[in-house]
């Protein structure tokens, strides 16, 4: 019993009337004391019942959490998005309920501060939604732990499916939300009690109604769902948010939904969007005709005995993969440095200063004060035959659950070259520091090329043409990581201090010539 509970009982005891030495001779006073002891027993019984309810809840939660817990070992595959999502959700939603009931000092304070917050859970929901969209996965597949050819032992609960449905509903993705609510309903019918059926029905009714607004001639069974909700749960009342949505739908007669949905649709479906998703799924033919692999040394005496292994991915403009250019020891050094300094990636819109979700990862700058980083920078100079005097600091980025970098150009502002002696990003070299079990390709829609991340390789391309203008064909993106982790190191090489006479920028073959000068093919 905690001090506070005992204090409550003692406070009650203090109300007893102080009597004199004749207490034991007074039957009336003895009756009062007996009555008072009965009240104390009732208080104690109430306290014990209350503690037993808490103990039963904690015991139940212990059984649930220990059965669903996964060890941090490779065979349990924390790189699987379903497993990772379940872990984040338990720590955000389940554990705080238990920890709030524990007696003081049972849990070290530093453990409480390590709990992820609601925003981490929203990030996990967004990651799963992204994987479903890009890789054309069905709600049924994800709900049952099936991702492509993988079948994870972790399956989603009815509550998980309901949360995914709510996430899609709040973003006006009504067709998607209905599929998730259907999965939640199936699991409830099979005995899953992690979410109330009436909550699922209420959301599914509204999602179906709004979907009907968007496609008036198609039936979404919204009337049947409403009748079932009223019949099976006559005392159920809509939450404030759902009541507001319901009133908005009727008052504005669906018009607002069509207008806002069109805006969302137009923003999410630009001319490259479908190509990007298709390439991420590798649902296209990538030609290799005329492409070769060879050694490159640029006539550098130091490289004649140890040239770089180069693979052509595309000829004009050049897209190149270097093989075996970073060792496991160097990778571990870079990873160690990254883990000390990482932060969430922030990418701003080109038109506003608002932070977007175009890039979902963790990143850290690794300066050349670090010996390994400095060594890699010198190697970049040898690999590309370009000056790195005005290049940016090495940047390490880690892409986890659903992590991606949507289609973009590496150039910042094209006018930058005219006002900054360092100029713009002439070229990009990206080291792959890990293998990726599934997904995570680097895709170039205009070139129809998709590059698989392979540990120890590096991908290189130019961002500018001979006139210093953006190479439009070099728009590229990083596909969402479907399973595993993608770790890369980026080196952006600027125009400043380049030997342009050697580069022949006025030559019509630049930048292609840069890679074939002094190289026998």
From TrEMBL:
Keywords: Dioxygenase, Endoplasmic reticulum, Glycoprotein, Iron, Metal-binding, Oxidoreductase, Signal, Vitamin C. Pfam families: 2OG-FeII_Oxy_3, P4Ha_N, TPR_P4H. PROSITE patterns: FE2OG_OXY. Gene3D superfamilies: 6.10.140.1460, q2cbj1_9rhob like domain, Tetratricopeptide repeat domain. GO terms for cellular component: endoplasmic reticulum lumen. Its cofactor is L-ascorbate. GO terms for molecular function: iron ion binding; L-ascorbic acid binding; procollagen-proline 4-dioxygenase activity. It is found in: Endoplasmic reticulum lumen. Its EC number is 1.14.11.2. Residues 1-21 form the signal peptide. It is an enzyme of class 1 (oxidoreductase). Residues 390-495 form the Fe2OG dioxygenase domain. Catalyzes the post-translational formation of 4-hydroxyproline in -Xaa-Pro-Gly- sequences in collagens and other proteins. Belongs to the P4HA family. This is procollagen-proline 4-dioxygenase. It comes from Homalodisca liturata.
């Amino acid at each position: 019993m905690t001090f506070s509970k005992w204090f409550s009982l003692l406070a009650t005891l203090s109300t007893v009337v102080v009597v004199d030495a004749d207490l034991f001779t007074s039957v009336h006073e003895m009756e009062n004391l007996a009555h008072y002891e009965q009240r104390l027993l009732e208080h104690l019984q109430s306290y014990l019942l209350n503690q037993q309810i808490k103990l039963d809840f904690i015991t139940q939660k212990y059984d649930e959490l220990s059965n669903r817990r996964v060890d941090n070992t490779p065979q349990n595959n924390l790189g699987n998005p379903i497993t990772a999502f379940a872990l984040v959700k338990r720590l955000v939603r389940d554990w705080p309920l238990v920890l709030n009931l524990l007696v003081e000092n049972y849990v070290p304070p530093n453990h409480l501060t390590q709990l992820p917050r609601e925003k981490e859970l929203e990030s996990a929901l967004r990651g799963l939604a992204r994987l479903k969209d890009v890789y054309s996965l069905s709600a049924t597949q994800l709900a049952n732990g099936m991702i492509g050819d993988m079948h994870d032992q972790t399956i989603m609960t009815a509550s998980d499916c309901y949360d995914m449905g709510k996430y899609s509903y709040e973003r006006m993705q009504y067709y998607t939300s209905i599929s998730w609510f259907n999965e939640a309903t199936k699991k409830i019918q099979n005995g899953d009690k992690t979410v109330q059926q009436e909550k699922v029905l209420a959301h599914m009714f509204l999602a179906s109604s709004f979907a009907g607004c968007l496609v008036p001639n198609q039936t979404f069974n919204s009337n049947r769902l409403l009748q079932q909700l009223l019949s099976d749960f006559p005392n159920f009342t809509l939450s404030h948010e759902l009541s507001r949505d319901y009133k908005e739908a009727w008052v504005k007669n669906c018009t607002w939904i069509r207008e806002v949905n069109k805006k969302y649709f137009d923003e999410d479906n630009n001319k490259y969007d479908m190509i990007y998703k298709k390439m991420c799924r590798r649902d296209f033919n990538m030609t290799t005709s005329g492409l070769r692999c060879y050694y490159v040394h640029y006539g550098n005496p130091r490289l004649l005995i140890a040239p770089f292994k180069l693979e052509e991915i595309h000829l004009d403009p050049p897209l190149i993969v270097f093989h075996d250019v970073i060792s496991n020891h160097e990778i571990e050094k870079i990873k160690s440095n990254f883990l000390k300094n990482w932060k969430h990636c922030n990418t701003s819109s080109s038109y506003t200063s608002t932070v977007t979700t175009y890039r979902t990862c963790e990143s850290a700058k690794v300066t050349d004060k670090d010996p390994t980083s400095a060594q890699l920078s010198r190697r970049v100079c040898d690999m590309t035959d370009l000056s790195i005097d005005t290049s940016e600091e090495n940047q390490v980025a880690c892409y986890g659950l659903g992590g991606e970098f949507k289609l973009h150009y590496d150039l910042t502002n094209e006018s930058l070259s005219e006002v900054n002696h360092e100029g713009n990003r002439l070229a990009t070299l990206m080291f792959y520091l890990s293998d990726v079990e599934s997904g995570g390709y680097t895709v170039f829609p205009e070139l129809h090329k998709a590059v698989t991340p392979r540990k120890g390789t590096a991908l290189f391309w130019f961002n500018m043409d001979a006139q210093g203008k953006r190479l439009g064909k070099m728009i590229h993106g990083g596909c969402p990581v479907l399973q595993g982790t993608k770790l890369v190191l980026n080196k952006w090489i600027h125009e400043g201090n380049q030997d342009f006479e050697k580069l022949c920028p006025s030559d019509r073959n630049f930048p292609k010539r840069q890679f074939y000068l002094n190289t026998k093919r």
